[in-house]
Amino acid sequence: MKEPLLEWPSAGVTRSPYRVMSDPEIYAQEQARIFRGPTWNYLCLEAEIPDPGTFRTTYIGETPVIVAREKDGSIHAMVNRCAHKGAMLCPEAGGKRQHLTCPYHGWVYDLQGKLRGVPFQHGVAGKGGMPEGFDTADHSLERVRAQSFYGLIFGTLSTDVEPLETYLGPSMAEHVSRVFHKPVEVLGYHHQVLHNNWKLYMENSRDPYHATILHTFYATFKLNRLTMDGGITVDHDGWHSINYSKGATLREGGYEGTGIRSVVDDVGLADPSLIERRQEFDDGITVAIQSIFPSCVNQQIYNTLAIRNVVPQGPGQCELHWTFFGYRGDDHALRDMRLKQSNLIGPAGYVSIDDGVIGEYVQRGIAGTGVDANSVMEMGGSAVESTPGSRATEATLRGFWTGYRSLMGL
Amino acid sequence: MIDEKLRRQIEDLHTRYIRAIDDDCLEDWPALFTEECLYKIVTRENFDQHLPLAVMDCRSRGMLEDRVTGLRKINFFEPHRYSHQISGLMIESVEGIIANCRSNYLVVRTMAEGTMTIFSAGTYLDKILLDPAGAKFEERIVVADSRRIETLLVIPL
Predict the structure, then answer these.
(1) Are residues A187 and A125 located together in one domain of the fold?
(2) A192 is in which domain, residue-wise?
(3) Which one-letter DSSP state was computed for residue A124?
(4) Is the residue at B149 inside a domain?
(5) Per the CB < 8 Å rule, is B59 touching A93?
(6) Where do runs of H (alpha helix) occur along B1-114?
(7) How far apart are CA A229 and CA A352, in angstroms?
(8) Could you tell me the strand order of the sheet in which B136-144 lies?
(9) A127 and A189 co-located in one domain
(10) 10 Å Cβ neighbour count for B19?
C-alpha cells in the first residue's frame, strides 16, 4: 500500500489542508483520480453541436477533448490527441468537419474517433510503409464516454463510473431539468484566467456565506441577502450542491447598522433598468448556483443563465469558461434583459468581479504554510446536509471535500 | 477629403478619453459620451460569431456612471492602473454629424504590487457625434483580440 500523499486533519471535512492547493504531486494525482477517475465532467451543450459534423473542443481536467455530432445525429466524444504522435487534432473552439485530420502526418479519423486513413500506409513504390500486421482498428482516438442530460453533455474517461443520473442524484438532476426544461440558445462566451488552484474556485462557487458579504453589489441592491428565503441542497453525499434564494421574500434589516461591510449606504444606480427582472421560474427562486463535482457550475442570477466550467492549468492557475445562454424563442425583451443583466456576471460582472481575485488572495495568503496549516469550515456545524431554511452554513464546502477525500483516498 | 479640423476634434476626444482613464479621473469618463450612448467591450470570439454577449454592456450614460460607482464604492479588486496606447486612427466616413472611426488600442495594466502585463489589445469601433460644443462618443465598441480576460476587468478599456 502506497503511503497517502498527506494525512487529512482529524477534524475531518471541517478542515482542509492548504497544501492541496499548491502541491504539484497532489495536483498530478487529481488528474488521475478525479478527472480521469470515476466522475462525470461537463463537456458542452447539445445546442452548440446542432448539426451533423459540428464539434466543440473542451477539457476534462487538463485532457483536451473533442465532442462531435455524427451524420446519424449521435454524439461522440474523444480525447483531442492523435493516436500516432500525440498532436492535438483540433486547436479551434468549434466548427464543422467531415473528418478529423491530424495536421502532423495526416492520419484521418471519423467523428467517432475511428482511424480511417494513414498516408503512405503501404509505402511508396513498394518500399517502406507500415508493417504487415498494422491494423487501423488498433489506433482509434481514446474514447470519452459521453451522455446528454437535458441537453447538457457530460463525459467520463472512467469505465466504472456510476450512471450519470445516479452520479448527479435526484435533487441535482431535478435542478438541471428545471433550468434546461426547453431548448437553449448560446448567447456568447467568457474566458477568465484565475491565478488560483481550481478547487478554490469550486469552493467559492458553493459558498453561500461569502456571497452576500464579499459581493457588496448583491446586498446593497438587495439582489441577494441572507434575510431572504433560501437554502442549500446537497446531493450524492454532498459532492454536488445548490444554494438558492427567493428575491421576493426579502425581510428588512439584518445588514443595516451591523457594520457588515457588504452594504454601501448612499449609493444608487443612475440607470436602475440594469436590475429589472422577470420571474421565469414558478418556484420563486431568483438566484441559484448549482455546483456539480468536480468542476461545473450551473448558474441563474436573475435572468442570466450560464454554465461555468473550470479548467485546471497547474496547481496555481485555472481558466474559467462561461457559456451564457437563453432559451430558443425568448421574446425580444427577455433576450435583451438577459444581455443587459450580463453586466452582473462574467469577468467584469458587478456580482462576480470580486471572485476574480479572491481566490488569488487565498493562493497568495497560504504560500509558505506548513504541512499542518488548514482552512476552517465550521459554519453550520460539521454535518453535510441540506438546510432548506438557512444559508448561514458551509455544509456545501464540506460536501466538496467529502467527494474529494473519497476519490483521492485521503 | 476629411478636413484637418475634423481630425483634430476626433483626436482630441481620444486624448481626453485616455486621460480620464489613465489619470484615474474616471468621473470625467461618462461625460465623453452622449446621453443615449452605447459602450460595449466584446471579445473577437463572440464578435466574429455574431454572438451578442459582451464583457461590459452599457446602453446609457447612466450605466457608465454606474460602472464608475461600482469600481469606486462597490466592487472588490486589487488596485491597478492602465496605460493606453492608441494608434491607427482612421475616419472611415462622415454621415451628417456622425463620424465613423476605428483605431487600435493597447492597454498595459500595472498592479499595486508592480506586476505589469499587456492586459488587452484590440480595435475601437466608434460613432462620434460632431457637436460644436465638443465631440462625443455616441457609440464605442471595444473589440478585444483575446478571448481571455486576465483575473478581472473593472476599469473600462
Answers:
(1) no
(2) 170-408
(3) B
(4) no
(5) no
(6) 4-22, 44-48, 61-69
(7) 22
(8) B56-58, B33-43, B136-144, B116-129, B98-111, B80-95
(9) no
(10) 15
CATH, residue B12: 3.10.450.50
10-residue averages of pLDDT along chain B (157 residues): 86 97 98 98 98 98 97 95 98 96 98 96 98 93 98 98
Q: Which three cell numbers stand for residue B140?
A: 464605442
* B124: enclosing H helix or E strand: strand B116-129
A144 and A69, same domain (yes or no)? yes
Question: Which residues does chain A have with pLDDT short of 70?
Answer: 1-2
Q: Is B55 on the interface with A (CB under 8 A)?
A: yes
Q: C-alpha A332: how far from its chain's center? A: 29
Q: What are residue A145's phi and psi, to 5 degrees?
A: -75, 120
Report the CATH number at residue A110: 2.102.10.10
Q: Which three cell numbers stand for residue B65?
A: 456612471
C-beta atoms of A340 and B57 within 8 A: yes
- Does residue A343 belong to the interface with chain B, where contact is any CB pair within 8 Å? yes
The H or E element containing residue A374 is strand A374-376
Is A371 in CB contact (< 8 Å) with chain B? no
Provide DSSP, A127-191.
BSSS-TT--GGG-PPPEEEEEEETTEEEEES-SSPPPHHHHH-HHHHHHHHHHTSS-EEEEEEEE
Residue A352 in domain: yes
pTM above 0.90, yes or no: yes
Nine-digit cell string for A330: 425568448
Say if A340 is an interface residue toward chain B (CB within 8 Å). Answer: yes
Q: Could you say which DSSP state residue B70 is in?
A: I
Q: Is the dihedral of CA A202, A356, A257, A221 positive or negative?
A: negative
The cell for A197 is 488552484
Residues A144 and A177 occupy one common structural domain: no
- Helices first, then strands: H and E counts in chain A: 9, 19
For residue A366, report the phi and psi dihedrals to the nearest 5 degrees: -90, 0
